[in-house]
């Protein structure tokens, strides 16, 4: 094995392992296995045209070179992105720490207490700064959070309003442009109407159900919206407020002047701008919205022994349960970034935040005064950190811009000739001197300003009625970890409670928890990629452009669908963008009345939810006993809806882990009916380099770059869900407003290139593997799954295999017979796995009563064998219950996981020894993952969960 080749670092299986594994499976070669797995009519006839693989060392140099093509200017552009300081202990301890970035969404609460606590802290930061009662633990960005807010308020209309069909939402002109654009994209097909204008002159009437305003607004002005909110409430309309979290440190929180929902970005809480993303969006609301607020909510609950424990709350309203009835399609969010923002607030504490916000404000005030003295008109009366300036007649935008760019400074140049600037945490007195130099040189007056005078940190540049009176972040956690030592240990303390890829394989079917190589992640810590504003001029972002253009090209080659956008920030967001693209295409071709999306019963919950979000109806096709689309049902339902079919959504290989042999026929049939084929690309890890959606016949697919293409899961995000489309759909792809008004297209995210900052991970993955490495990764993913299937088929049994008895890149383990025989169910097995230091496979999806295992190509044979040993050990424990050697209720499975405090307690009340609970296999004696809570009882009920520290009285 040549270790200088990255493929041998990424793929866990050596040639000799492979030989043994193939013989276990019972095939002579890897090619034979692949031939038995993937239908021959969809195999690509030729190699993919991708660049030769780079070594890790070559890549590092290449990334540095790309980075050097991005120019770091001081950014005062604002409009939703601000320069910020990521505290070094958070960068090193969280962002660069595999335990934090490789962990999965905290569905298995007992081994996720660390990130659950971190996200709970984030919720507290948002609720306290906004003054609201309830928040989720992140949305994708500010603009999508705005759209989610509008939809939430639509769903929360009073009965009378709903009955009267009130469907108008008012958008104030001074919202950030992407917020307006994305709200427009998202709500028009929901039967809502948008009215835009100036909030001061807007007349509410009965048709209005909601209004959206911004605080401070896009020009930087802080308005007194009290009477506006009263007018809204008088007609039973609700008000959503976009608010900058940093400004709320100094300003009266929106909840205190009547807001019904508050949303925005938490980017400036320590997350680099990354050319637009990723960072965490937030949405806060009143308790009354608990059933309709989208996204995940963490609550404090109890474990079986009554110990406090965190878990996800209110899951029954999520799309994986409610499917087409869900109020949102959001699945992957921005957990890692929310975690970092929470730690930022913890590190600085309320006083530190006040100092930071106060300094930003004071410097902005100073600049405002100086600009006025120079003869500029500052349009703001009350402001926090943003000024909008009118230029005197003798100063042209061009000359000001030339002066600014000469000083490596970016301002926001409005189309109406005004200029806006936003100061931030990184602004220093010397920067103020440069700013004033720029504005005075543009006037041709004497420049060279050094700031000598003391800038008053106490003066307020807004009316005292706006000043925040309420305290915030008084809880101990925000007042204990202000030294680096304390913060470092707090981060470590939480980290120790979580299982991640740094501990063991995470065999989550459909989620593809593969290696996220350190060499793919280096750019995340480089200022050349971090400190770039998404609206920076093109000549400053050549590195990003080159990277993004190449990435799009490679993804087009890999999927066989040449039109690509990387704007969507998650898989579900990609689904929405893809369906919107189809919708635009149908509208432009006189087929706007096509409104049905066909999908199989096995579809992921986000599929039906996205279809409905896009204004379609869903028709569900049954699956047959082999797990394939039931052809009779498919033919009947496509016939019945022939003239109404807009699209079929299909996952391939199916969510049952099978390459259906008739996929090409399914696609053809949909085309014959006049519909488009949408392929959910979550399972691309079984296709890359061997087949592809374009070749199979799909028109659109999204990719989960955080699954197949090596972006880490981050405990529930960031994600990246680019869509790839066929030639005829390229013109219909989402576009972007670039921050300017008058835009009317189909923008789906706040930033032009979505989470551009993590695009380099996938780019690096593709560059280091090249065509043959990518293909090998796919082959080994299939090899590993079939190897495990061979070893587990005689005990648990495999629910679905393909026509030739093979599985794809994942396998579904049967647990339903076990339950009948022993009362042990799939959840007991999942919890028992924790005692062995493993994260459970995917539970009860897509088939109830089963576990779906996806080993991925990155795991070694030793790790696969260990997992099989563990499953065999659990199998034996189940047999003990079946044959009566173990008690039906007091057994290692029903009592799992066994928390440390129970294992070391003086008393031991079980019918089996401690050693059996704790060390069922020998390897555990040298590498035990200690769990600090017992089983968390989901039956304990959402009603008793607390979503914040202060919510002791309000229950969910
Ligand atoms: C993960 C997944 C999705 C949703 O992707 P997110 O990035 O979480 O929004 C959709 N479909 C399938 C089959 C998936 O596995």
From TrEMBL:
Q: Which SUPFAM superfamilies match?
A: PLP-dependent transferases
Residues covered by the Glycine dehydrogenase C-terminal domain: 777-898
Tell me which UniProt keywords the record has, alphabetically. Answer: Oxidoreductase, Pyridoxal phosphate
Molecular function (GO) terms for this protein are: glycine binding; glycine dehydrogenase (decarboxylating) activity; pyridoxal phosphate binding
Q: Name one Pfam family in it.
A: GcvP2_C
Glycine cleavage system P-protein N-terminal domain location is 8-439, 477-734
PTM N6-(pyridoxal phosphate)lysine: list the residues: 707
Q: What is its EC number?
A: 1.4.4.2
The lineage's top-level taxon is Bacteria
The GO biological-process annotations, alphabetized, read as: glycine decarboxylation via glycine cleavage system
What InterPro entries is this protein classified in?
Answer: GcvP, GDC-P_C, GDC-P_N, GDC_P, PyrdxlP-dep_Trfase, PyrdxlP-dep_Trfase_major, PyrdxlP-dep_Trfase_small
GO cellular component, as recorded: cytosol; glycine cleavage complex
Q: What does the record give as cofactor?
A: pyridoxal 5'-phosphate
Q: Which reaction does it catalyse?
A: N(6)-[(R)-lipoyl]-L-lysyl-[glycine-cleavage complex H protein] + glycine + H(+) = N(6)-[(R)-S(8)-aminomethyldihydrolipoyl]-L-lysyl-[glycine-cleavage complex H protein] + CO2
Question: Where does the UniProt annotation place the signal sequence?
Answer: none
- Role this protein plays: The glycine cleavage system catalyzes the degradation of glycine. The P protein binds the alpha-amino group of glycine through its pyridoxal phosphate cofactor; CO(2) is released and the remaining methylamine moiety is then transferred to the lipoamide cofactor of the H protein.
Q: How does it assemble?
A: The glycine cleavage system is composed of four proteins: P, T, L and H.
Recorded family membership: Belongs to the GcvP family.
PANTHER family per record:
GLYCINE DEHYDROGENASE (DECARBOXYLATING), MITOCHONDRIAL, GLYCINE DEHYDROGENASE, DECARBOXYLATING
Q: What is this protein called?
A: glycine dehydrogenase (aminomethyl-transferring)
């Amino acid at each position: 094995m040549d270790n200088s080749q990255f493929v041998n670092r990424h793929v866990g299986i050596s040639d000799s392992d492979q030989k043994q594994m193939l013989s276990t499976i019972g095939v002579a070669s890897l090619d034979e296995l692949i031939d038995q797995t993937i239908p021959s009519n969809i195999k690509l006839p030729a190699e993919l045209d991708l660049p030769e693989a780079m070594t890790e060392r070559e890549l590092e140099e290449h990334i540095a070179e790309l980075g050097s093509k991005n120019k770091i200017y001081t950014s005062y552009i604002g409009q939703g992105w601000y320069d910020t300081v990521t505290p070094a202990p958070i960068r090193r301890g969280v962002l660069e720490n595999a335990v934090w970035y490789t962990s999965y969404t905290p569905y298995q609460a007992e081994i996720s207490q660390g990130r659950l606590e971190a996200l709970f802290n984030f919720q507290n930061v948002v609720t306290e700064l906004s003054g609201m009662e309830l928040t989720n633990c992140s949305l994708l960005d500010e603009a999508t959070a705005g759209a989610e807010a509008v939809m939430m308020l639509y769903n929360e209309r009073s009965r009378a309003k709903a009955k009267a069909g009130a469907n108008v939402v008012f958008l104030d002109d001074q919202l950030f442009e992407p917020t307006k654009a994305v709200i427009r994209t998202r709500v028009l097909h929901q039967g809502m109407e948008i009215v835009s204008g100036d909030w001061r002159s807007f007349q509410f009437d009965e048709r209005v159900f909601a209004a959206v305003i911004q605080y401070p607004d896009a020009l930087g002005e802080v308005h007194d919206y009290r009477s506006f909110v009263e007018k809204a409430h008088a007609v039973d309309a609700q008000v959503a407020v976009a608010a900058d979290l940093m400004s709320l440190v100094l300003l009266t929180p929106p909840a205190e002047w009547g807001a019904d929902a508050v949303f925005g970005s938490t980017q400036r809480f320590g997350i680099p701008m990354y050319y637009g993303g990723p960072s965490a969006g937030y949405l806060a609301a009143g308790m009354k919205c608990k059933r309709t607020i989208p996204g995940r909510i963490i609550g404090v609950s109890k474990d079986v022994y009554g110990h406090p424990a965190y878990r996800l709350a209110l899951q029954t309203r999520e799309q994986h349960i409610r499917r087409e009835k869900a109020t949102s399609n959001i699945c992957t969010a921005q957990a890692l970034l929310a975690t970092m923002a929470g730690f930022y607030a913890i590190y600085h504490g309320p006083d530190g935040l006040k100092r930071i916000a106060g300094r930003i404000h004071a410097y902005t005030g100073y600049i405002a005064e100086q600009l006025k003295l120079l003869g500029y008109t500052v349009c703001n009366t009350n402001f926090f950190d943003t000024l909008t300036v009118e230029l005197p007649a003798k100063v042209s935008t061009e000359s000001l811009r030339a002066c600014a760019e000469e000083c490596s400074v970016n301002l926001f140049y409005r189309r109406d000739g005004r200029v806006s600037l936003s100061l931030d945490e990184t602004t220093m007195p010397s920067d103020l001197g440069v700013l004033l130099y720029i504005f005075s040189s543009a006037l041709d007056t004497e420049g060279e300003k050094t700031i000598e005078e003391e800038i008053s940190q106490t003066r307020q540049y807004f009316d005292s009625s706006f000043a925040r009176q309420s305290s915030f972040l008084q809880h101990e956690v925000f007042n204990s970890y202000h030294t680096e030592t304390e913060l470092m240990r707090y981060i470590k303390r939480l980290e120790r409670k979580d299982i991640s890829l740094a501990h063991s394989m995470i065999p989550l079917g459909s989620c593809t928890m593969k290696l996220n190589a350190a060499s793919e992640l280096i750019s995340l810590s480089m200022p050349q990629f971090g400190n770039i504003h998404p609206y920076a001029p093109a000549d400053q972002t050549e590195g990003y452009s080159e990277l993004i253009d190449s990435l799009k090209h490679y993804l087009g080659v890999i999927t066989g669908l040449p039109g690509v956008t990387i704007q969507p920030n998650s898989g579900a967001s990609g689904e929405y963008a893809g369906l919107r693209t189809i919708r635009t295409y149908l509208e432009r071709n006189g087929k706007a009345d096509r409104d049905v999306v066909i999908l199989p019963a096995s579809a992921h919950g986000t599929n039906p939810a996205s279809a409905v979000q896009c204004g379609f109806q869903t028709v569900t096709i049954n699956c047959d006993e082999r797990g394939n689309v039931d052809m009779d049902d498919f033919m009947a339902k496509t016939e019945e809806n022939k003239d109404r079919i807009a699209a079929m959504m299909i996952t391939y290989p199916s969510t049952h882990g099978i390459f259906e042999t008739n996929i090409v026929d399914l696609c053809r049939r949909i085309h014959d009916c006049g519909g488009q084929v949408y392929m959910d690309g979550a399972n691309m890890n079984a296709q890359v380099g061997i087949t592809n959606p374009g070749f199979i016949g799909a028109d659109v697919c999204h990719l989960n770059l955080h699954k197949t293409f090596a972006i880490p899961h981050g405990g529930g995000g960031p994600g990246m869900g680019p869509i790839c489309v066929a030639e005829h759909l390229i013109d219909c792809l989402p576009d972007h407003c670039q921050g300017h008004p008058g835009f009317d297209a189909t923008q789906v995210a706040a930033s032009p290139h979505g989470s551009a900052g993590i695009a380099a991970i996938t780019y690096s993955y593709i560059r280091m593997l090249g065509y043959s490495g990518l293909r090998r990764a796919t082959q080994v993913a299939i090899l590993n799954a079939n190897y495990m299937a061979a070893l587990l088929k005689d005990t648990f049994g495999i629910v679905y295999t393909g026509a030739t008895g093979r599985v794809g890149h994942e396998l579904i383990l049967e647990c339903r017979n076990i339950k009948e025989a022993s009362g042990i169910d799939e959840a007991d097995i999942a919890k028992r796995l924790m005692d062995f230091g493993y994260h459970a496979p995917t539970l009860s999806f897509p088939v109830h009563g089963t576990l779906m295992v996806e080993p991925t190509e990155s795991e070694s044979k030793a790790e696969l064998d260990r997992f099989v040993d563990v499953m065999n050990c659990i199998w034996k424990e189940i047999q003990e219950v079946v044959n009566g050697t173990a008690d039906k209720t007091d057994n290692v499975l029903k009592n799992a996981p066994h928390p440390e405090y129970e294992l070391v307690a003086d008393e031991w009340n079980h019918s089996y020894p401690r050693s059996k609970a704790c060390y069922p296999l020998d390897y555990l004696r040298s590498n035990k993952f200690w769990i600090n809570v017992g089983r968390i009882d989901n039956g304990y009920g959402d009603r008793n969960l607390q979503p914040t520290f202060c919510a002791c009285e309000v229950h969910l």
